[in-house]
Write a structure and sequence with these properties.
The structure holds 2 protein chains of 2 kinds. Chain A is of the alpha/beta class. Chain A contains 7 helices and 6 strands; from the N terminus they run E-H-H-E-H-H-E-H-H-E-E-H-E. A 4-stranded mixed beta sheet of chain A has the order 3-4-5-6. Chain B is of the alpha+beta class. The chains are: A alpha/beta, B alpha+beta.
Chain lengths: ~200, ~240
């Protein structure tokens, strides 16, 4: 599912970095700034969450909290500079940045971008399939690219899962993830496949 | 007079209408809308969009997560599409830009079709947004040779920038409309310097334009966008775009 942060202005990242630079952050935390904001690591939860059964009341926030003050500055900046979130280009850029921040490699950046420009409805498939692959195949290195069939002009997105070791269960685990994202492909013109090329992670 | 370019840098143009909250909306509207636009936009797709609206308030934050369905209608070559969501109509066109005269009929068709299926009570916001991708010949290109809108760096500062951001907001029509301009570097896989110049002209005052003034407003907005775009670039950049007059 695509996530659109209405106050987000990803192009202003250098400024956003400067306001968040002092926050303690573990080495393992490779999530994007907005993912961290969205997943509420600073102790505040959605104050209103429509259509979500697991809605929780917001945690209290202190106005003298440095993080909170910095976040206010950030939100104020973003509100001031939020442009349309409806640009296909901006949404793809945001998606690719988010994938990279999660450790996903993007092969053929331009081709992948162009594929998504042509099939923007595939953005949420990619986002959810990557999330499922990360959860169910934690040992895999993931690489997203466009597969071009050598025998015809057909092309589609492919997410390669590369493992340090391959065994008889590898394909079975990949198939189990495919079964989870497959319903999302229903009614879409684009195509997406999670597979492996049996190469070691780079 | 509007200049014509053989290699225009437009990556995407977006026209967006946000309807006022008192405009009635229900789930049947995308289907009714499709019946009216399917000759032009025959391919229908859908995606789910999760919007996170963040607002700062004095003691805390409010952020609201809402999941909405966005229905997309594409022209056969998929380069132009209409997006419909709750009280939202967006028309996007991607490279190659079909010119304003080519883009406008799509906007007109979508807006008029929406009005046939929804009683639009007002416009909360409306905007015309152009995203230009500009490729300069080298990574070391001097911005002031190509732009009249760029970050100024005084002589006492390092002259080599590894990143920058340049933005401004201008008011028009007695503050009814605003225009945001932003120049930032983009990731480049080549040896060229690639920049994104975004120009977004929008209605800054909700309901300040009535629904029957939309096309006059769009023409005005488009004229301003051209002025601003031309005001941002130099003749050297015009040569790269291959200006014809």
């Amino acid at each position: 599912m695509a996530v659109v942060a209405k106050v987000e202005r990803s192009s202003w990242d250098p400024w956003i970095s400067s306001t968040s630079a002092e926050y303690p952050r573990t080495q393992a935390d490779k999530s994007s700034r907005w993912q961290r904001l969205i997943t509420s690591p600073w102790g505040f939860a959605p104050t209103e969450k429509t259509g979500q059964p697991d809605f929780q009341e917001p945690a209290p926030a202190r106005a003298d909290d440095l993080e909170m003050i910095s976040l206010h500055l950030l939100v104020s900046l973003c509100e001031k500079w939020s442009l349309s979130s409806e640009s296909i280009h901006a949404n793809i850029k945001r998606l690719l940045e988010s994938l990279v921040s999660q450790g996903v490699r993007i092969g053929q950046l331009r081709k992948t971008y162009e594929y998504l420009m042509r099939f923007p409805e595939m953005m949420d498939v990619v986002e959810q399939a990557v999330s499922l692959a990360r959860d169910h195949l934690p040992a895999a290195q993931l690489q997203l690219e466009v597969y071009q069939d050598p025998e015809n002009e057909d092309e589609h997105l492919v997410l390669y899962a590369r493992f340090p070791r391959y065994d008889a269960a590898t394909m079975e685990s990949i198939r189990s993830v495919r079964a989870l994202y497959r319903p999302l492909l229903s009614g879409k013109s684009g195509w997406f496949l999670l597979t492996t090329d049996f190469r070691p992670p780079e | 007079m509007e200049r014509k370019y053989k290699n225009p840098p437009i990556l995407e143009a977006i026209c967006e209408f946000r309807l006022t909250p008192d405009t009635p909306w229900d789930l049947a509207i995308p289907g009714l809308f499709y019946e009216r636009v399917k000759d032009n936009f025959p391919h229908r797709e859908q995606r789910m969009v999760q919007e996170i609206v963040v607002r700062g308030i004095p003691q805390s934050f409010q952020h609201r997560v809402q999941t909405t369905e966005r229905v997309l209608f594409f022209v056969p070559d998929r380069r132009t599409l209409v997006q419909i969501g709750p009280r939202l109509l967006v028309i996007n066109t991607t490279k190659p830009y079909p010119t304003w005269e080519g883009f406008k009929p799509y906007i007109k068709k979508a807006w008029e079709s929406l009005q046939q299926v929804v009683e639009v009570r007002g416009l909360e916001q409306m905007g015309l947004h152009y995203i230009n991708q500009i490729e300069l010949p080298s990574q070391e290109a001097n911005l002031e040779e190509y732009f009249e809108f760029y970050p100024f760096v005084g002589k006492r500062l390092p002259q080599r920038m590894v990143g920058f951001i340049s933005g401004a907001e201008f008011a028009y029509a007695e503050n009814r409309d605003h225009c945001r301009v932003q120049l930032v570097p983009a990731i480049s896989e080549s040896s060229q310097m690639v920049l994104i110049l975004e120009i977004h002209y929008f209605l800054a005052r909700p309901r300040a334009v009535s629904t029957n003034e939309v096309f006059a407003w769009l023409e005005e907005a488009h004229g301003r966008l051209i002025e601003i775009f031309e005001g941002c670039i130099t003749d050297r950049l015009r040569q790269i775009f291959d200006v014809t007059f």
